[in-house]
Amino acid sequence: MKKLALALSVGAASLLSVGALTVPTAVQAQPVITIQTPPPPPRYERVPPPRRGYVWAPGHYEWRGGRHVWIGGGWVRARPGYAYRPPEWRQDGGRWVYNSGRWDRDGDGVPNRYDRRPNNPYRN
């Protein structure tokens, strides 16, 4: 009986430690992904009817395991006062750089953590 209790407690502790490492938080750092291979053309996705309080995050390609992997779209809870910017690949000097989806407060496309004046009402 003691062996079973010990095995269960060790198993539970290991599951909790793994869960603690993989639980997403709102302030996780997003690694910059730069590759030489361009992403394939986006796949067609049927966008479902609007849902109150949610924003549609379109499907996109991510770089996983040395190849492009399609991630299907889904609903993201809306944040009042913010605009959702979907994930995108941009070409920069012959390389492809991945920008993950993010929320932008002033609509200029620059993430607020990099924007010197994120709430400038006179910005174009």
From TrEMBL:
Residues 90-124 are annotated as: Disordered. Keywords: Signal. The keyword Plastid does not apply. Residues 1-29 form the signal peptide. It comes from the Bacteria. Residues 102-118 have a biased composition (Basic and acidic residues). InterPro entries: YXWGXW_rpt. This is YXWGXW repeat-containing protein. The lineage of its organism: Bacteria, Pseudomonadati, Pseudomonadota, Betaproteobacteria, Burkholderiales.
